[in-house]
């Protein structure tokens, strides 16, 4: 660990000691926790079920009520506010990532966190984040495609778990548990908008925008006398926000950009059901459907810009990137007993389809004959998964509990497709000196069309037991075979020792892996340009190519390997009466991280030009196993329940410190290039290590008295760097604390009215200096605030919510 991390850990331990001392002094209410239901955790424990404070690895349990108490209607945003090790930035100006935003656990890549629904693997998005934002190069699960109303609780395992669940669980696991109800229901309607003062480098103004209406609800129905059917749904409509600075190239100088949240409309549905077949077996299943229509803005094109056709847009134009995302999933299974074995067999399927359109734009190489609106093509990902899990206890003489053995198998098939868009969305028209393709977002062309698939099978064994009343252990091993890159073996050992009735230490060591996604292996997006360097001009391609393409192989690329990790966690749990605190330090070493390279241009050297010439390519980038990194950090979570004559207080404090360092950068070992180009410039390196805050802390106080509920939360975000090739031009978000406050009144009829404010004091990241903002070309003045801000840059959000339960 770094010196700073040692100091931070020491401070956290000191704080823990202070809190513990204060608790002993206030232990006059030892029964305060009696009305708190015991939370049994299933995530990360294949062979046993333990309460939240008895787990062998750190697990956060977030209830649906905790999420509902917030102003945000986005699941990922709400989850990030109550889980300090999880970040959910709000990037803008990065094409598709504006619309399907990724979440990051412990500062690692979004695709290094496994997402489960009722313990079954959830499909990822078809989107590949290829632009300069957090999670560059990843394809992550879209958490916002899942309605909050469908959830009973969430469990966030902050520990490597590849040995238990397979690929992607390097940073941890998010397990979403669906609501199971055979009666009752709820309906919620909320409305909110931003009311903020925007203070950019060259201007200031008041804004009232981003109006959001959200309607969600659920109903529980009986299936016979002993089954349940729970139907949940949500619909949301959000207007865009705009936070750019003025454009000095127009007169009078006004804001020409729309830099902020996209306009969105969405709906999502979830159905969850269970029905006993007899005294032994239960049939269960769930299905979901969601649809998102999102419109973000590209940079403004001026009237005299080379990308404009002045006859069509005499005053310039603002292209709009329209992403239409559709998700579906379905699962069916049975669980029961096969003799002494508890068994669970299931089949699930799911996928995401992402269609792109560019609106209010033009292909300047077609002149005035160009289309204004373009269909840009489609990305599509799907998976089908079969799971078989069995377990049984074996009594061992002298042990405090039986040894539980769990065995299982998972078979998965995946497919990935790219479909081409309209000809004019990508083509170079008759005006060959002009730019090709739709301005703002060029379409996929026929050479980008992909249709690939793969399958894998994994088997695991897990044993767990309490050897004594004080010592527990869990050990797991998993073997995987992928049709495209081969075998992997992962293992994990975790243990917990109770030193006193109130204090226990716990730790784990594990190896993990993440298979390169099909998108990382096969995604391709290129543009056609006119090459005039020779005696005769010719059309060539430039862009992203698969690592297995002839172009990438010619430059030295190799088929991608799996990322491999080694995780270490050591921590402690202390609880007494109404007080509890957990402290966990971790270290995650990852080899062969899959990264997107820089563009390798023919202008780098005559040798590169010679290698690219046969393929009609002027520049190429591709995914490679590019780096080894080490992530060190510490998590502190403390909770205190305090009943008083003035109401009940629930006080929680959570803190995460996280540092990622690059241990080594890989080169193209098989490349014929001499010299070799820089594969990962400083900007890419800083995005990898510093695009999430090193420090994040949350202090929350919930007060309940009678029919009143008041929730207050202060969240501190450490500085994040928006990097530049020149370190002197880095943009820093700065250290900031945001305060959220809401008050609810519950009527006796089941009706609850809530008024609240997120970011009550209208906090913004540091404004971008005028000389570091866009000053020429497209998008002048747009980037008034950094897109890497961990809390976005929209300002104060005011909202009201009306809820009814029955």
Automatic annotation (TrEMBL):
Localization of this protein: Cell outer membrane
Domain of life: Bacteria
Keyword terms: Cell outer membrane, Membrane, Signal, TonB box, Transmembrane, Transmembrane beta strand, Transport
Secretion signal, residue range per the UniProt entry: 1-25
Domain TonB-dependent receptor plug, residue spans: 53-173
Family the UniProt entry places it in: Belongs to the TonB-dependent receptor family.
Name of the protein in question: TonB-denpendent receptor
């Amino acid at each position: 660990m770094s010196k700073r991390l040692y100091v931070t850990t020491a401070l956290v331990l000191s704080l823990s000691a202070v809190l513990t001392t204060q608790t002993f002094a206030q232990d006059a209410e030892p029964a305060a926790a009696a009305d708190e239901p015991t939370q049994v955790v299933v995530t990360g424990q294949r062979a046993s079920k333990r309460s939240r404070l008895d787990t062998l690895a750190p697990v956060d349990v977030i209830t649906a009520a905790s999420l509902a108490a917030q102003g945000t209607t986005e699941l990922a945003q709400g989850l990030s506010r109550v889980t300090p090790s999880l970040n959910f930035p709000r990037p803008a100006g990065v094409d598709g990532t504006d619309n399907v935003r990724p979440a990051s656990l412990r500062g690692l890549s979004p695709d290094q966190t496994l997402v489960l629904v009722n313990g079954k693997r959830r499909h990822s998005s078809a989107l590949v984040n290829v632009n300069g934002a957090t999670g560059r190069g990843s394809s992550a699960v879209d958490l916002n495609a899942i309605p909050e109303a469908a959830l009973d609780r969430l469990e966030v395992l902050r520990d490597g778990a590849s040995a238990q669940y397979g690929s992607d669980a390097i940073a941890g696991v998010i397990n979403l548990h669906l609501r199971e109800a055979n009666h009752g229901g709820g309906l919620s309607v909320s409305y909110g908008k931003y009311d903020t003062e925007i203070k950019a480098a060259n201007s200031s103004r008041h804004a009232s925008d981003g109006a959001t209406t959200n309607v969600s609800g659920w109903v529980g129905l009986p299936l016979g006398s002993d089954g349940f059917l729970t139907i949940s749904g949500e619909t949301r409509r959000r207007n865009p926000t705009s936070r750019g600075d003025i454009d000095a190239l127009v007169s009078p100088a006004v804001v020409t950009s729309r830099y902020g949240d996209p306009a969105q409309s969405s709906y999502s549905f979830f159905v969850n059901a269970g029905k006993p077949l007899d005294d032994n077996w239960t049939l269960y299943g769930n299905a979901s459907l969601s649809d998102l229509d999102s419109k973000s803005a590209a940079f403004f094109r001026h009237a005299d810009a080379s990308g404009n056709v002045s006859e069509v847009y005499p005053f310039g134009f603002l292209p709009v990137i329209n992403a239409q995302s559709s998700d579906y999933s379905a699962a069916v299974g049975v669980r029961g007993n096969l003799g002494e074995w508890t068994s669970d067999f299931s089949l699930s399927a799911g996928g995401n389809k992402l269609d792109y359109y560019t609106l209010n734009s033009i292909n300047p190489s077609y002149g005035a004959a160009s289309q204004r609106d373009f269909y840009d093509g489609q990305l599509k990902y799907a998976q089908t998964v079969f799971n078989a899990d069995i377990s049984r206890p074996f009594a061992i003489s002298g042990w405090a509990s039986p040894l539980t053995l769990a065995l299982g198998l998972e078979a998965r098939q995946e497919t990935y497709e790219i479909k081409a868009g309209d000809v004019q969305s990508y083509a170079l028209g008759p005006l060959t000196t002009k730019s090709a393709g739709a301005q703002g977002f060029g379409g996929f062309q026929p050479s980008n069309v992909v249709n690939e698939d793969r399958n894998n099978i994994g088997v695991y064994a897990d044993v767990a037991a309490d050897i004594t009343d004080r010592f527990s252990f869990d050990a797991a091993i998993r073997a995987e075979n992928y049709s495209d890159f081969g075998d992997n073996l992962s293992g994990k050992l975790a243990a917990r020792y109770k030193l006193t009735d109130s204090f226990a230490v716990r730790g784990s060591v594990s190896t993990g892996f993440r298979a390169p996604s099909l998108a990382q292996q096969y995604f391709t997006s290129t543009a056609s340009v006119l090459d005039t360097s020779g005696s005769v001009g010719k059309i060539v391609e430039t862009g992203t190519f698969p690592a297995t393409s002839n172009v990438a192989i010619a430059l030295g690329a190799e088929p991608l390997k799996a990322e491999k990790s080694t995780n270490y966690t050591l921590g402690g749990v202390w609880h007494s009466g109404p007080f509890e605190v957990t402290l966990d330090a971790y270290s995650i070493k990852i080899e062969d991280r899959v990264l997107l390279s820089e563009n390798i241009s023919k202008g780098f050297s005559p040798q590169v030009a010679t290698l690219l010439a046969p393929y009609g390519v002027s520049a190429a980038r591709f995914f490679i196993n590019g780096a080894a990194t080490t992530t060190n950090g510490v998590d502190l979570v403390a909770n205190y329940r305090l009943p008083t004559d003035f109401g009940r207080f629930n006080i929680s404090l959570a803190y995460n410190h996280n540092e990622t360092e690059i241990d080594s950068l890989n080169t193209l070992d098989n490349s014929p290039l001499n010299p070799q180009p820089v594969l990962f410039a400083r900007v890419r390196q800083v995005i990898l290590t510093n695009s999430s805050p090193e420090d994040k802390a949350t202090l929350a106080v919930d007060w309940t008295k009678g029919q009143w509920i008041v929730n207050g939360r202060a969240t501190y975000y450490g500085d994040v760097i928006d990097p530049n090739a020149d370190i002197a031009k880095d943009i820093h978000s700065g250290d900031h604390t945001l305060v959220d406050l809401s008050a609810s009144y519950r009527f006796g009829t089941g009706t609850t009215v809530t008024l609240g404010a997120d970011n009550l004091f209208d906090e913004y990241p540091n404004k971008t200096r005028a000389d570091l903002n866009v000053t020429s070309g497209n998008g002048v003045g747009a980037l008034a605030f950094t897109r890497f801000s961990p809390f976005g840059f929209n300002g104060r959000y005011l909202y009201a919510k009306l809820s009814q339960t029955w």
